[in-house]
Amino acid sequence: MCGVAGFWLKGDMEVAEAEATLQCMADALLHRGPDSSGVWFDPLTGVGLAHRRLAILDLSLNGHQPMRSRSGRYTVSYNGEIYNLDQIRTELERGGSIGWKGSSDTELLLEAIEQWGLQATLERCIGMFAFALWDGHDRALHLVRDRFGVKPLSVAFTSRGVAFASELRSVTRFPGFRKEIDPAALSAYVERSCVPSPLTIYLGARKVTPGTILTFRGPSAARVTETRWWSTAQAARNALQSPFEGSREEAEHDLEALLRDAISLRLVSDVPIGAFLSGGIDSSLVVSLMQAQHHRPIRTFSIGSPSAQHDEAGSAEQVAKHLGTDHTSLIVTPQMALDSIPRVTSIYDEPFADSSQIPTFLVSQLARQSVTVALSGDGGDELFGGYNRHLWAPRIWSVVRHLPRSLKTTAARSILSVKPEHWDKIVGRLGRLSPSRQPGNHLHKAASALNSDSPQALYRLLVQHWSPSEVLKSPVAWPLDQRFEQVGGLSESIMYQDLIGYLPDDILTKVDRASMAVSLEAREPLLDHRLLTFSWALPTRFKISNGRGKVLLRDVLNRHVPTELTDRPKMGFGIPLGDWLRGELKEWAWSLLRPEALERDGLFRPEAVQTYWNEHQGGGRRWENRLWTILMFQSWRAAGGLNP
Predict the structure, then answer these.
(1) Among 407, 531, 579, 624, which is most exposed with the fewest C-beta within 10 angstroms?
(2) Could you give the CA distance from residue 105 to residue 80 in angstroms, rounded to a whole number?
(3) 300: left (phi over 0), alpha (psi -120 to 50) or beta
């Protein structure tokens, strides 16, 4: 895994200055590639590429980047892994022997583009990647991102030209870039607790959309075109038109075969490899099939919490013991969380407020002590119906669409009149029928959604943290809040929204930045695009049935791990943030949320934040997610996120 950067200049720049700028941009990505760096600059066109390398395949100098193709036509700065490289290499060699210099997938990528062209090559690739490709023959610069957005890539337009990089911290080192807030991005951030693609927190900068190619014919926004080489919506709709017609047992068999192959492809590495293990369904399944393909115990890593409600270390250890892995766990204390906040704030170089960012960073740090690559279970929820909203939204909508508004309002008030902790006790008496460890919070969320007048409005309320108009002094409509698409039934449509939004904007961003901050490559076998095609062809009942999601994933897992070890409410790498904000983190949090601190930039409404702070401190409601959203923005700002 690596760091990519570069530019296309407007006007002239001395070669020494250009190369120094490229090196400066590359140095900002040192954590993504500590093994080597390189720069390439063409003074005739003003195009420059920079690279930081984390050597995973072919550890020799033959993998050094930026790399030129054999003909000299293409030059690439590449970040990613092509997992089916052996298959592609065999296909390339059918026409005759190729004088390979090494065994890196970068060299393979360039040769494939030479023979087949860019789009045809991408369509053959099973992998994760983001790269910049200069075509010297056509004088075109291509910025490419993988199907699901596993690997990041951002681009900025300035008076000095176009700059791009794996992370914004590198883009901001390009001469003339200004760290100015994009009001639409800020509104989107407070609503989603992350900045959704293609927005970035800065004006003039944007993320490359997953599954697209940005092609520049010159160093300005006016000379760029976007080509979609992969459409998640189209892939899903194609699968729906060719539904799986076998039995559940046959689907289970086919799914396990696909999973085994996806995991096998992601075990190719010239460095030590392990896996994250939370003890949940997805990570346990990945580790099960991974261990089945190893003769020795694989290394697994988990994070625990002093709070029994959030502690998964015990469950992960039981799964690890059953599978025979070499397991390491770490208990996260409040002091460890507090100590990690400055680092966590800096690695997400725009505001980011998924509180599991802390344990994700700490488990990455733990794993990096032993391995350089770690497999994760990300993607299972989005493909197989793992979130509560996939189960609840159709039920809520089937009821509220027919109810008069007055009745919906009364029902919502009734639910909200009971504190979440009281609902926890009531629902807790249901035992295994309870779908969550914090059912009270989910019931309050559902109550807020009762007044929805469309599936789109329902989804927006279910994923919303803040209403921008409630907390911002100058809220702005952001351009992607109307993108809800009907793809299959309502459960599938919500899974699709999560797949194109929540997954790349939150989950994959969290894992990429946390892992790469410690030079660890994370791989997601459940995000093999062949699994998307398979999952979307399945009948809904194979994914969601009897109030439970991920039905078929559970079936496969039960072949390898006893049900009692993994059959529990979903958690993920969680921390008792709400309790900590009332205790060990209270002083730090209040220093950032007090009215004087919030008034400094004139962005937030201090009275709104203080109301939620007081309610949270009083124990009447749990508002840790809303408060964390503001805290992470304030921390980012204090760490230099804005120009003075």
Answers:
(1) 407
(2) 9
(3) beta
What is residue 65's predicted lDDT score, i.e. its pLDDT? 95
d(CA 203, CA 185): 9
Strand pairing category for 140-145 and 127-135? antiparallel
pLDDT in tens, 513-571: 999 999 999 999 999 999 999 999 999 999 999 989 999 999 999 999 999 888 766 55
Residue 79: which region, alpha, beta or left (left: phi > 0; alpha: psi -120 to 50)? beta
CB 88 within 8 Å of CB 112? yes
Q: Which backbone phi and psi does 636 adopt, to 5 degrees?
A: -65, -45
Q: Is 388 left (phi over 0), alpha (psi -120 to 50) or beta?
A: alpha
The maximal CA–CA distance of the chain, rounded, in angstroms, is 74
Enumerate domains of the chain plus CATH numbers: 2-230 (3.60.20.10), 234-384+503-566 (3.40.50.620), 576-644 (no CATH)
The sheet carrying 47-53 orders its strands as 36-42, 47-53, 2-9, 161-165, 154-158, 205-207
CA angle 177/180/182 to nearest 5° reads: 120
Q: What are phi and psi of 299, to 5 degrees?
A: -85, 130
Nearest to 311 by CA among 571, 486, 545: 571
Residue whose entry in the numeric block shows the structure tokens 């883009």: 171
CA distance 533 to 530: 5
User: H or E segment at 405?
Assistant: helix 405-416
DSSP 3-state percent helix, strand, coil across the chain (nearest 5): 50, 15, 35
Cα 470 to Cα 191: distance, rounded to the nearest angstrom: 10
User: Binning pLDDT at 50, 70 and 90, where does residue 432 land?
Assistant: very low
Residues in contact with 104: Cβ distance below 8 Å, sequence separation at least 6, in sequence order? 57, 58, 62, 63
Q: Are 79 and 4 within 8 A, CB to CB?
A: yes
d(CA 110, CA 73): 10
d(CA 79, CA 132): 9
User: Residue 76 and residue 135: Cα distance in Å, rounded?
Assistant: 9
Structure tokens belonging to residue 332? 């996260």
Spatial CA neighbour of 556 closest among 537, 574, 531: 531
Q: Which helix or strand (DSSP H or E) is residue 157 part of?
A: strand 154-158
Q: How far is it, in rounded angstroms, from Cα 596 to Cα 567?
A: 47
Distance CA 372, CA 81 (A): 14
Q: How far apart are CA 327 and CA 319, in angstroms?
A: 10
Distance CA 635, CA 632 (A): 5
DSSP label of 5? E
How far is CA 348 from its chain centroid?
Answer: 12
Q: Which residue has the higher pLDDT, 240 or 436?
A: 240
